[in-house]
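Notes from the pairing session

We agreed to fold both candidates in a single pass and log them together. This is the raw record for the first candidate, unedited. Please don't reformat it; downstream parsing expects exactly this layout.

Candidate A
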Amino acid sequence: MKHLIVGLGNIGDEYARTRHNIGFMILDAFAQASNISFSTCRYGDVAHGRIKNQQVVLLKPSTYMNLSGNAVRYWKEQEGIDIDRILVAVDDIALPFGAIRMRASGSDAGHNGLKDIARALGSSAYPRLRFGIGGDFPRGCQVDYVLGEFPPEQARELPARIEVAVDAIRECVLAGMGSAMCKFNNK
């Protein structure tokens, strides 16, 4: 089986450590733990590897977050991957910092990156891993919050939380979304 694992984020050094780039951070950690590396390709940075008997294609789109759909559609079609074998890692302000919620499908919950992927694929029936970044910001300041960096206390905890997300992706690839949801949701 082949899986497309997508991490959402924004390109550029100014965004590298922001909350909105947690998808990129998770994929970087996954690639490092799996001893695979990214190459710059059409629509993003891509890595190919194996986890036991499963093939994985990692994608960090080179489009901005809100325009990720074309990159996902291109690599889905390029690699011949079914929609239920796509997993998108994304930030979520509705979850407390570091919490993980996996779903086999669902709404975009107002996330423009997920909305654009659903538009490009013609369906929202693709799996996702939502990583909580919290939502402690004043009304009207959401953009500044998600494009801001994690505060020092969270930054110290971040590597351990990312490791849990990496383990959740590995579980999803090897045992399926149902098993991953049971083991990792709200951990």
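Candidate B (folded immediately after A)
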Amino acid sequence: MSRPPRPPAALLAALTALAACGDPQTVSQTVSRDALPPEGQPPMAEHVEDGTCRARDVQPAIYEHVMGEVQVVQAEIAEDGTVIRPPIYRKAPVPRVVRERGEITFEAPCPEQMTPEFIASVQRALAARGYFAGNVTGTLDAPTTAAVRAYQSERGLKSAQLSLETARALGLVAVELPAKPPAQDTL
């Protein structure tokens, strides 16, 4: 039976240095598990000053590789500024930004509204419209967030977090009606 390969000395030194940096309990005390969304679920909306809740969704940047020139040897320049040897370039794929990173915020149901019963209603409403084909579980699982994203993307909001506008469109949250002007007496 052969022995497993030994890790490089540099890796062992780095792991030893990390272990000596501090008690792992200090990390878990600074970030509460309750503050993080469950694994695979989008973050919940946060309360704002006006009593509503807003969700925040980060849209990652999108890159593509295009052929470009990469400098492989730097130019050699004399003290008087004359070029002794020009730089040398080679063709290679280089990243190019197709879409910048962005962040969107929108009004969303508050965390206390996102009960299992409410989420089950979201799942049934999306299923009735042909967006959700999974089991009604009352949890924001991957099929539910994918259905929310598909439904909202068709309406201009590219997010897997449920917006208040979507909840209203699905008939799950009351729609605020404009106030009626007082009736005027007619003679």
